[in-house]
Amino acid sequence: MNNFIDKTLYEINRIVKDFLFFEVVETPDFWKDVKDDIKIVILILSLIGVSLIHNLCFLLLAYFLLLIFAYLLKIDLRKFMKRSFSFVLFFTVLIVIPYLFFNPETLNIGYSHKGLYVALRLIFRVLISISLANILFFTTPWINIVKGLRMLGVPSLAIAIIYMTYRYIFFFANLAQDIFLAKKSRTIEFNYKREYSFIGSAIGLLFMKARMLSEEVSQGMISRGFGKEFHPIIKREKYTIKDFLPIIMEILIIGVLIWMDRKFYLN
Fold first, then answer.
1. N or C: which end of the chain has fewer CB atoms below 10 A?
2. Residue range 176-214, pLDDT digits in tens
3. pLDDT digits (tens, 9 = 90+) for 46-57
4. How far apart are CA 52 and CA 62, in angstroms?
5. Nearest-angstrom CA–CA distance, 64 and 197
6. Is 132 within 8 Å of 46 (Cβ atoms)?
7. Is-contact 123 93, C-beta < 8 A?
8. Chain CA centroid to CA 198, Å
């Protein structure tokens, strides 16, 4: 890489792939046997439970329990924490910086310990939420997540949009990289003015290709009989009491954390 444009492009492409591509790990039998829709329900219940915890100490306890669970699922903790903290550092920290200089009790401007406490609480809520989603993505193939959403009654049109958006992101990230690589292979002398002009042209070309591809895909889907309904292959299975045990355990754990949080918070 001879210039910052190449470095920036490849770094953005790498970040996009790191955030969206998950290498599914081989999990133990106790989690592998859990149905896909049950996993999604557990995720939703966990997200609701985390949003109801107010005390920072119990949020730290919840994150510690989450790390233990990820370790039991044989997830690489370094990669797991890297993904979670990367998202938090890029987005959430920028949002909570004003809290450091604002007192929510007195509404005064200036550094306050209360503002720092509120900022840390928000950071750990987001961190736990992202980590919960990462556990699902690390342990469940994408097509199984789509199947689980459909079994939970999510509209087929919404699932089709999510499914195609997920594929389009990778396609256009690689397409942008190919455009710049093709241009670089034909460049003899580097010129900043010409490079900036090329960036504008490349962005316009990328949008034109996106529009043309959307039309081609739409026409291809219509010609193959695609309608408004998106029907992934779903094998209906019977539910037993054993299938609902993970949900019961999750409710008990979240319930205990919320009860202890309320008892400490109210006192």
1. C
2. 777 777 777 666 666 666 666 666 677 777 777 777 777
3. 999 998 988 888
4. 12
5. 50
6. yes
7. yes
8. 32
